[in-house]
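To assess whether the prediction recovers the assembly geometry, we first specified each molecular entity separately, as shown.
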Amino acid sequence: MTKEEVLKEYRVREILEAARRVIGKFGFEGTTIDRVADEARIAKGTIYLYFPNGKDELLHSAVVEGLRDLTAELRRSDDPSQTPIARLASMVRAMFTIQRNHQDFFKALILDSRFVAFEPGDARETELRNVYIEALECVADLLRVAIADRAIRPIEPQLAAVTLFEMMTAPLRRSLLGLAGAPTDADAEAVMELFLYGVRDARPSGNGNA
Amino acid sequence: MTKEEVLKEYRVREILEAARRVIGKFGFEGTTIDRVADEARIAKGTIYLYFPNGKDELLHSAVVEGLRDLTAELRRSDDPSQTPIARLASMVRAMFTIQRNHQDFFKALILDSRFVAFEPGDARETELRNVYIEALECVADLLRVAIADRAIRPIEPQLAAVTLFEMMTAPLRRSLLGLAGAPTDADAEAVMELFLYGVRDARPSGNGNA
Amino acid sequence: MTKEEVLKEYRVREILEAARRVIGKFGFEGTTIDRVADEARIAKGTIYLYFPNGKDELLHSAVVEGLRDLTAELRRSDDPSQTPIARLASMVRAMFTIQRNHQDFFKALILDSRFVAFEPGDARETELRNVYIEALECVADLLRVAIADRAIRPIEPQLAAVTLFEMMTAPLRRSLLGLAGAPTDADAEAVMELFLYGVRDARPSGNGNA
Amino acid sequence: MTKEEVLKEYRVREILEAARRVIGKFGFEGTTIDRVADEARIAKGTIYLYFPNGKDELLHSAVVEGLRDLTAELRRSDDPSQTPIARLASMVRAMFTIQRNHQDFFKALILDSRFVAFEPGDARETELRNVYIEALECVADLLRVAIADRAIRPIEPQLAAVTLFEMMTAPLRRSLLGLAGAPTDADAEAVMELFLYGVRDARPSGNGNA
DNA sequence: GATGAATGAGCGTTCATTCAT
DNA sequence: AATGAATGAACGCTCATTCAT
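The predicted structure of the complete assembly is given in tokenized form:
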């Protein structure tokens, strides 16, 4: 990689980080090129050197990078020597940690983003899809292992993974509604337990109607 | 109710429906007063006769009405003579039906909305919260009954309700990612089963590691 | 005059009075048809029955009527049996009284009005001119008498009349600038004295340089 | 001063001059951002670079600048080595000159401005007041000197100054009413004489009734 | 005649984008 | 490469005017 490329990558990263902070502070709708430039301490025009396609591209990249970080973190937190269930629990905890660390950005990402809002066929839609799927597959792969291991039922792994992702937003949503404080580790455990066992009462004396 | 009030309510409804269609087509960010007026086949200024506080109020009302419709539908679908579990299943199916009927709007609502984006203390934030909570409580109440009935475990009903709400977006999200077709009744069943039983393998020979 | 005409004149008067109150409260720029209609307790559309040419015509008429009232008041206050100087003093006092009675309206009229803002040739410009001149001539005629009477110098009566009119706004302007309280009778006397004697020191020991 | 500051000041001046021309042509109510931008041959948005607070700020600045120019001109025209009366006469002549040079603008300023139209407490109201008072004080100070010098009577200098200001608008008003041509030097002399001596006939044979 | 709901031109303002320096 | 002044399309909103009832 040439010196120029290194510099370029550094600049791109700086801009994207600034964009994430701005998104966190002002939401997607409140994110303007001016604010990102200010946050990155560069001139507005400079952004167009690194993101020639403008704002859409920049926001897209910021979201993609956020999801990639998420994926990377999920992978880093994984310890294949553990049982599948323990690994799943680790992943859930890891996602909660990331949510907490980049809280404002993920809050915006979850509540405010148009996730898949590009024109059908737009290359960016594909990329966004792929990076989301990649995060998903971390979990789905683990589910496949767990299924093979008979640790969990033979359900559709991808649907279960999406479901788990959505479940993890529940404590955040509840917090935003003022129904609870910020998500805690206890919430991570609660979500994990719901995901594993559901709500059904398994006690022998349980009411067996369905 | 006087004739004027009837007419006014009719107009308000027409505008809100137009707004919902526009939100569905263009997302929240792409929703402009011009587009709503065009969609409602009225002049731009007319909107301000019925929504004097402008766009924010209009979007807020559209979202609130959407959630109210949801709540109403949940209540209508409920048959208290059934077992709690059967009633829960009905609710899940009802929500899927609504999602299907107003698919684009709910897609925007779920993926794009700033749900709680008003200034803290804004009366609208409170209303939005309340109407969301009302929908939530339909489910939470049912969960309380089910718990009393020992049909489900003594979990925190409100968290479980939020979680169920989030879970129900999973098939929609999956569909939007191109990983599956539009949500079906089968998806409703799958979500219901996950919610009830979780993913854990309950077979006697199951691998019990945790 | 037919019954219809009487009614019409009554309505016109009501609307004009409402307009004057609104102008007083909100200034010319803040005067809208809606506000005038509200103030007159009639429907917006009704105004167009009596002022088919719309807002410009209405404001024009309100100003004209205000000036006519002023003229009428000046005439009513005049007592031809007095000396010209006493009659002038009465007129100045009368103008201050009117200013006080319709303070807000005249404040707007003096400070805010486009007095002669119509297209050249517009019939309304002519009318406005004429009604203003009519008020002016009340004073100018008196000045002519005074000149004939050798009570005042043989100056150009019309210019002197305009000047007196402008001088009378000085206490109001001073008040609006916060440099003094609302115009008082003492201000009327001071203006009158300045108009009669100027500022020059007439004392024998006075410094005679010019 | 850096090059940027010079350029900025130049632009601000250009915009303000354009604004003054537009105000002169269309009056305050007819002054739109579009027209000012057109007149200044810049894009509408550019105005907001130099007047971030928008139209109110722009109009305010235009008026303030106009009054400052007036004050500066009054000071420039003053020659302290002359007698107070001669200095007063110079000031009156100077004001007429300025009126002539920026005729349309001052016409609007005099006839159309809401001079003190901001919310009470608004910093701009204070500034406007102050700049007006500053112009006033040029004259009031001179009047104080003249009083000390016994050239004029011991009248209230500030009221006399406001009165003189108002008197100077008389020829302009007369002209606008079509009662005379544009103000001339002769009008300046006439105003000056009225201000000094009033209208009273001082001839020995004069009619002394009051 | 009286109404007021409906209209849409026109306003002030924002902000993504361009380009001369 | 980096800048930020300049641009102008597009937005939310107001309000004088019209017209069906």
